[in-house]
Amino acid sequence: MLGEVAGAASLSVEGFSLFLGFPKTADSTKAPLQRRCKLFFLWCCPHSPKKLEELELDEQQKKRLEAFLTQKAKVGELKDDDFERISELGAGNGGVVTKVQHKPSGLIMARKLIHLEIKPAIRNQIIRELQVLHECNSPYIVGFYGAFYSDGEISICMEHMDGGSLDQVLKEAKRIPEEILGKVSIAVLRGLAYLREKHQIMHRDVKPSNILVNSRGEIKLCDFGVSGQLIDSMANSFVGTRSYMSPERLQGTHYSVQSDIWSMGLSLVELSIGRYPIPPPDSKELEAIFGRPVVDGAEGESHSISPRARPPGRPVSGHGMDSRPAMAIFELLDYIVNEPPPKLPNGVFTQDFQEFVNKCRGAADDAPNLVSLRFQSHTFIKRSEVEEVDFAGWLCKTLRLNQPSTPTRAAM
């Protein structure tokens, strides 16, 4: 089975074992642990201090990334017996994620367990994910400690983000303020730009549950289970979470990294209004969400962005505010393809934020290089970059977390 999995990534069985552990040297069995750790660090962490300088990090980001890479080098060989399970964090993409302590180092990690008795396509997906995570070192990408195989499972060990994902935060916050989402937008754009510019890949599964946050104020993309290395900026396959997929992906046409931007825009609307925005809220629900009538247009007409009546009798979706029935999957896909994309209501958010979300909704028409140029230079992003926002303080208050004495300035 290992040979089949490795073959998907043009690796031999020996190469696959190297990929999950230490590089094999002539005296690897005799080498002291410190030397083996150094070999592993040099092999799987391609970002030297010089490479880190090329990432245009501020001093605090550089120190934190260097500290993480140093921790990673000291962890040593990962083994199943070295982990103590603390709690379950979630499940998805063929695996279960748990909060664990690595007993030899004392580090708290997030451990993703993936069974190998799965479809070949999923096994190939695991290889791609491991490749990406080994090579990615950015303040906007969740850190990766290593991976190992044991008892029919691959364990992927990642940085633990104590704030969890934004969909979990949303359940507590009900709605996330615009100024907070400004910092989120910066981090997501920079993370996507890093993946494309440094590794020529797309994320392919941008959604609130794949944006992680912590009590230091850091915001990072995670879960590259649906990411693949791309030779060019275009792809032609169905991979991802359908409810966040852009129209061109659902139609089977060519799509590029701009589909990630479309998914980000949909996520921003969800985080802003407090629930998945398809079907769109009607005026009555918007009034319940914002505590007052919401108007749309210069004449002050009642806001209504739902052109279809929802059939009764379906489960309720969302985070508590949504009183409308959830769509069946085919109805949802048809809506994404044939109806105008969700938008932010007028009179609640700034014009800059509304325009930014609207550009995300039309991102598929842009050239690939505009991901880092057009969007990162948008007025909403430039304003959010200079705006003083205590993201860590807001998050810790919302989730009742203990805030570190020296939080990171979010997304800066």
Compute the average pLDDT.
75
Q: How do the strands of the widest beta sheet line up side by side?
A: 1-2-3-5-4
Query: pLDDT below 50 for ≥5 consecutive residues: which ranges?
Result: 1-46, 225-241, 297-320
Level-2 CATH architecture of the largest domain: Orthogonal Bundle
Based on secondary structure, the structural category is alpha+beta
CATH class of the largest domain: Mainly Alpha
Number of helices: 16
**Helical content class:** 25-40%
> Measured on Cα atoms, how large is the radius of gyration?
22 Å
Number of folding domains? 2
The CATH topology of the largest domain corresponds to Transferase(Phosphotransferase), domain 1
Question: How far is the N terminus from the C terminus?
Answer: 44 Å
**Overall outline:** globular
- The H/E string reads HHHHHEEEHEEEHHEEEHEHHEEHHHHH
CATH homology group of the largest domain: Transferase(Phosphotransferase) domain 1
Main beta sheet strand tally, sense and closure: 5 strands, antiparallel
Strand content: 5-15%
Strand runs, count: 12
Catalytic activity: L-threonyl-[protein] + ATP = O-phospho-L-threonyl-[protein] + ADP + H(+); L-tyrosyl-[protein] + ATP = O-phospho-L-tyrosyl-[protein] + ADP + H(+); L-seryl-[protein] + ATP = O-phospho-L-seryl-[protein] + ADP + H(+)
Domain Protein kinase: 83-381
GO molecular function: ATP binding; MAP kinase kinase activity; protein serine/threonine kinase activity; protein tyrosine kinase activity
Organism: Bubo bubo
